[in-house]
Amino acid sequence: MKLAKTIGELKEFGDTSRTTKEEMRNNLLAQIRDSKKRFPGIIGYERTVIPQLENAILSKHDIILLGLRGQAKTRICRQLVEFLDEYIPVIHGSELNESPFEPVSTRNIKLVQDAGDELEIDWLHREQRYQEKLATPDVSIADLIGDIDPIKAVREKLDLSDEEVIHWGIIPRTNRGLFAINELPDLQPRIQVALLNILEENDLQIRGFPIRIPLDMMLVFTANPEDYTNRGNIITPLKDRISSQINTHYPDSLDDGMKITQQEAWIERGNKVTIPNLIKEVIEQIAFEARENEYVDQSSGVSARLPISAYENLISNIERRAAINAEDDYFPRLCDIYAVIGSIVGKVEMVYEGELEGPTILAVNLIGEAVRRTFERHFPLPRKEATTPEEMVRNENIYEAITDYFSTGRQLELSDEMPLSMYKSRLDEVIGLKKLAQKLYNSLDERETYLIMEFILEGLHRMNMIAKESPDNKFIYSDMIENILRK
User: N or C terminus of the chain: which is more exposed, having fewer CB within 10 Å?
Assistant: First the structure.
């Protein structure tokens, strides 16, 4: 595509100027008509957040995304640039990205008049039209809007009342684009006040000098509801001027959560790591359990980064075991799940009772609950012990052979560092376990059969059918009653 170099050439192409919000509105409508996918990579918001976002764009609104940590708020902000034109013309050298047809600064208004059709223009790509700022208590009005630059006044021999001595802040420099402020409540109230006129009247006042600059942009804000009480607040007049408030949320289903984790996690490691769906479910279920746990501060939320980090740590533990044993086996074991504790403890905020419990114990309990829930979805539940002959017929316990094995006083020790041959031979010691695993779960890989065997043991432990101890990163399964008496 040939791009014009002067305003005269631009006029020949019939280029017309549109506001940023009109541009986004028209481009969004065109994408909808063409059935083009909008907001790629944003999963689980198809019927909730995305329709509201699109309505806000079509209404030419400024937007605030309100939600807990790890709900893709910043990613959504950055994807809004896809509704801008690929390139727009700007006056060459303009700090404010001014349109050659509608200059806004005194200097460029005069330049357009003097240069006529020979006015030199540049082209600004859509990616250059997006800026964002993380709100922190030290952000100043000068950072966002601008300030008088006395050095420039002396160098250029200009009066301090001259518009040319202003050092523009990041917001005016994003004119004709998108500007996002993350964590808006962290911005001091007096700084928030400075945004009021930008949202409505486009009036800027710097150091007492009234300046009329009709800024053309869409403003997008993000905020965490927790911040309203912990670190700050959004002043009411500012919130009133933000036309659309859109609430984000965590994945509603385990499938959506797993898709997000698979999309975001670093999986490609240059080896043959294979993670079956059963393990993926457990990893994702940990986050779901944390979002319901009474010891976790639910007002802080549990980020989608938890299962992503856990998944990456799981793969790393598999790689580590393969390196320790000099094996080419990159298949997970259930005991690998406990290697993700480091991905949990730093990502959950605990209430007082949780602090007393301790972050590591809480993490282990979350993993245990995730295993139990996954076991309940895929395997028959153990039956209650029968007390009459009729109940014995009706309540067949398919796990009886397994529990009987441990009731004779035998134990089974497993480890995430064991060589594969030892891991298999240990599990094979439990009479009837392999046959039961093959019956209950259709495995295409022998290694998955052994994973299911271990899963059954862990499931029975979580159902209080057998006991388990974990000394020195080992997992020792034994009889429940004997374990209680021994203690």
Answer: N
Pair (49, 184) in one structural domain:
yes
**114 shares its domain with 225:** yes
Q: At what angle are helices 277-290 and 359-378 packed, to 10 degrees? A: 130
Q: Which residue has the tokens 């009889």?
A: 479
What are 281-315's pLDDT values in tens digits?
Answer: 999 999 999 999 999 998 888 999 999 999 999 99
User: Domain boundary residue among 378, 404, 434?
Assistant: 378
DSSP class of 6: B
- Compute the distance between CA of residue 61 and CA of residue 23 in angstroms, rounded to an integer: 13
CA-based nearest residue to 398, from 378, 382, 374, 376: 382
- Cα–Cα distance measured from residue 410 to residue 114, given in angstroms and rounded to the nearest whole number: 95
**Angle (CA) 244 18 142, round 5°:** 65
Clarify whether residues 171 and 78 are in a common domain.
Answer: yes
Provide the residue range defining the domain that includes 341: 254-378
Instruction: Supply the DSSP symbol for 386.
Output: P
Last residue of a domain, one of 378, 412, 431: 378
Considering the domain architecture, whether residues 221 and 258 belong to the same structural domain is answered as no
Using a 10 angstrom Cβ sphere, with 0-12 exposed, 13-18 middle and 19 or more buried, the burial of residue 80 is buried
Rounded to two decimals, the pTM is 0.88
**Rounded CA separation 174/258 (Å):** 37
**128 falls within a domain:** yes
* Of 30 and 224, the one with more pLDDT: 30
Torsion, CA 288, CA 293, CA 299, CA 301, rounded to 10: -30
SS3 state of residue 229: helix
Type of residue found at 40: P
Q: How many domains does the chain have?
A: 3
